[in-house]
Amino acid sequence: MPTKKRAVAMLLAGGQGSRLGVLTTQVAKPAIPFGGKYRIIDFPLSNCVNSGIDTVGVLTQYMPLDLNGYIGNGQPWDLDRNDGGVAVLPPYQKGKAGEWYKGTANAIYQNIAFIERYDPEYVVVLSGDHIYKMDYNKMIEYTEEKNAACTIAVLNVTLEEASRFGILNTNDDNSIYEFEEKPAHPKSTKASMGIYVFQWKKMKYYLEADEADPNSSNDFGKNIIPAMLNAGERMFAYEFDGYWKDVGTLDSLWDANMELLSADSPVNLNDSSWKIYARSANAMPQYVSVHAKVKNSIVAEGCRVHGNVENSVVFNDVYIGRGAVVKDSVILPNTVIEDNAKVEYSILGQGVTVAQGAVVGAAKEVAMATVEPGKMSGYMAVLGDSITIGENVTVKAGEMLAEDRF
Amino acid sequence: MKDTLGLIFAYQNEESMQSLTKVRASSSVPYGGRYRIVDFVLSNMVNSGITKVGVITRNNFQSLMDHLGSGKEWDLSRKNGGLYILPPFSQSTGYRGKMEALKNAESFIRKSTEEYVVLATANAITNQTYDEALAYHKEKQADITIIYKKSQVKKYEDGATIGNIITLDADNRVVDVAINPEVGDAEVCRSTEQIIIRRSLLETLIADCASHYMYSFHKDVLQRHLKDLKIYGFATDKYIAKVDSIATYYDASMDLLSGETRAELFYQPNQVFTKIRDEAPTLYLGDSEVSNSMIADGCIIEGTVENSIIFRGVHIHKGAVVKNSIIMQDADIQANAELAYAILDKDVVIREGRKLYGWERTPYVVAKGQVI
Q1: Element spanning B246, H or E
Q2: 3-class state of residue B326 by DSSP
Q3: Is B355:B335 a contact under the CB 8 Å cutoff?
Q4: Which chain B residue lies closest to A291 (C-alpha atoms)?
Q5: Which of B289, B294, B298 sits opposite A287 (nearest CB)?
Q6: Do the Cβ atoms of B297 and A285 come within 8 Å?
Q7: Phi, psi of B120 (to 5 degrees)
Q8: Of A80, A117, A114, residue with least CA distance to A2
């Protein structure tokens, strides 16, 4: 029998992340590589472990193969436990029926049995969409202190930004009286981070009630939170003032990567007191040749650099040929940039080949002045996984490619 | 190679490796930015399909045990077989030779069921598998097969040994084994200290040596049984470096800056496995200038690095210059410090503006944790 746990975390990792375009055609958004060696999901998973939460359910649905393999038995996060640990929870068949996760709340509802095994006091609901470091245990303690049915982590945003978020209107004691999804005229600047701590007994009650309502879209923001507020439950906002970045768009993904390029980066990946764990590729140390120039960049293991790298994040096992230029770009693992090729202001997927003399993207300022922005890629050039760009071929700024070009 | 047991001699503690082996056995000396020397033969065994490996240790093996752990990184954390660390059975004062070391592992060997044994010394930097050598061993119906490499032997004056030079007849049967002979510039057949033998024969030889107060594999087994045992040589052309002194360690490290050596050791279908450390990727900042160097994860490079091997978690501050050096894990090279031909063990701090220069054949070695 599993033992009783104070808290169980449920990580919603089923989303496609369609605004990330070609990067998510093969993988779910939480499995998108980030920061030279990580995946987005490493951040909430590492936060759980660092917060002392040793039981985590990862709810998958969209393109789960890669994510399943990545999480495996949870060993890289020290979540291979005899009691608890990480469990990947895909939708499953029940009796004669079987159904997909209809919404965030329904995903948890369908896994009530998993949670009940641990008989927890609290359930922490997380998403796999954000880059941040946070001690969930402090939030659980806050929930306990306030005797709240639910606390929601909030970040103070500017009034202009507030219209893009779910906004919590609170009283002086931080108790929530209203939740507004993307309000045109926000009354508060407390934006929901999509991180919830629930008292499990309350949560279960509202999940079951919500499921019984055929008109509900089974979503935490749209249904569960308003229902709890209407019923007069004690709900509190938990203020967070650290770095938190939604990486749901190509632009924000690029920004978040670039924010790592400083000695005092807001996400200090070298901080041994709050490590971000990842499943590491077994790669040799990087080799930087006599022809190479590497400036203001992150370069991971297994890379072979013979060209120029500037203001870029280069993942493991990337080859950069002689005379090649990589500038203001994010290069995902196992990509090859051949001699004299040029990659500027771009995101290149995994296993891409840019052949000799090819040009991908343009300098950021030039692109902004001369090209029509792409719908998702903006002024960047974005290449999907495993594609090849032929010799001397050009991919213009703003283009997003899912297929080879010769 | 399902039916093969691996045995690694990891007990050597070469004095000629100076302070590097004060705190650890030679086999766990850090190498190549993120590895330990033992990783190579251990990975070779795993890549050959060997799933049961015994590692014979003697003293100073804490670091080795910490590195190998349960063997998980080598996929040797198994229900059946897996990794066995074989420390001394009793408080003997040291192994005078490999047969004495094997005597200590006798019960492990006897309890094993594999038909063949690969014996390897953990001081070889090489990426090769033993499948072909075993096939050759079977084809020749050999008793013992020695994997050798024909090459010139570079001479060192710092305690590095020539090793065992074998002479072969036209059929590749070994007719002579010379221990640390004088060699000229001619190519010789040097044992790579990777040997294949039938397990039952090995058991007999261990018992025979023990009862005759004999301890050396080369002297008391090979030399004594040249006539009555069928001892064959199997040639390899793979890169191999024997590391048993500071100069050989330095040369084997600098070999990694050659594309050919890296290709032979790393850009291969068979990987070299090692213990994982959770490190961020390396960050280059400011006026970093890096040329012809190998750099592991977790470093912050703000200075100049040339012709060097930089291990995990090293910080090279602004204005610092590191040339022709080996900088092990977590060193802190502060602003405007200069290093040339230096070997820094783990956790060394070089304070601001300090300068350290060694020379190519005699690199300057700084012991673990020193602050300069």
Answers
A1: helix B246-254
A2: strand
A3: no
A4: B291
A5: B294
A6: yes
A7: -140, 140
A8: A117
Interface of A with B in 264-293 (CB under 8 A): 269-270, 275-278, 280, 282, 284-290, 292-293
* CB–CB contact A286 B282 (8 Å): yes
- Top pLDDT among A339 and B276 is at A339
Token code pair at residue B290: 């890096």
The 10 Å CB-count burial string (b at 16+, else e) for A326-353 is bbbbbbbbbbbbbebbbbbbbbbbbbbb
CB contact at 8 A, B55 and B9? no
Sequence-distant (≥ 6) Cβ neighbours of residue A41 within 8 angstroms: A11, A13, A30, A31, A58, A67, A70, A71, A128
Asked whether the beta carbons of residue A298 and residue B272 sit closer than 8 angstroms, the reply is no
The mean pLDDT of chain A is 93
Q: What is the band of A306 on the pLDDT scale with cuts at 50, 70, 90?
A: very high
Buried b (16+ CB within 10 A) or exposed e, B216-228: bbbebbbbbbbee
Quote the pLDDT of residue B91: 63
Residue B90 is predicted with a pLDDT of 67
Size of interface A-B (CB pairs under 8 A): 107
R_g of chain A computed on alpha carbons:
22
Q: How far apart are the first and last CA of chain B?
A: 50
Q: Is B161 left (phi over 0), alpha (psi -120 to 50) or beta?
A: beta
Q: Which amino acid is at A41?
A: I
CA-only gyration radius of chain B, Å:
21
How long is chain B? 372
Minimum distance, in Å, between the CA of residue A334 and any CA atom of chain B: 13
- Tell me the average pLDDT across B137-142: 95
A330 in reach of chain B (CB within 8 A):
no
Give the span between the Cα atoms of A228 and B359, in whole angstroms: 74
The answer to whether A258 contacts chain B (CB < 8 Å) is no
Mind listing the pLDDT tens digit for each residue in A236-260?
Answer: 999 999 999 989 899 999 999 999 9
Instruction: Residue A281: name the closest of A350, A328, A207 by CA.
Output: A350
Contact in structure between A374 and A399 (CB atoms under 8 Å):
yes
Instruction: Write the CA distances from B332 to A292, A309, B277, B348, B371, integer angstroms.
Output: 24, 25, 18, 6, 9
Q: Which two tokens stand for residue A300?
A: 């991971």
Q: Which of A275, A282, A287 sits opposite B278 (nearest CB)?
A: A275
Rounded Cα gap, residues B13 and B16, in angstroms: 9
Q: Are strands B30-31 and A33-34 parallel, antiparallel or unpaired?
A: unpaired
Is B46 at the interface with chain A, CB within 8 A?
no
The per-residue pLDDT for range B83-99, each reduced to its tens digit, is 999 988 766 667 888 99
Q: What tokens does B159 get?
A: 């305690």
pLDDT of A96 over the 80 cut:
no
This complex has an ipTM of: 0.91
- pLDDT at residue A169 greater than cutoff 70: yes
Distance CA(A45)–CA(A74), nearest Å, equals 9
pTM of the complete model: 0.92
Mutate to test the interface with B, among A34, A277, A299 (most CBs of B within 10 A): A299
**β-bridge pairing A190-199 and A122-127:** antiparallel
Kindly determine whether residue B271 and residue A282, on different chains, have CB atoms separated by under 8 Å.
yes
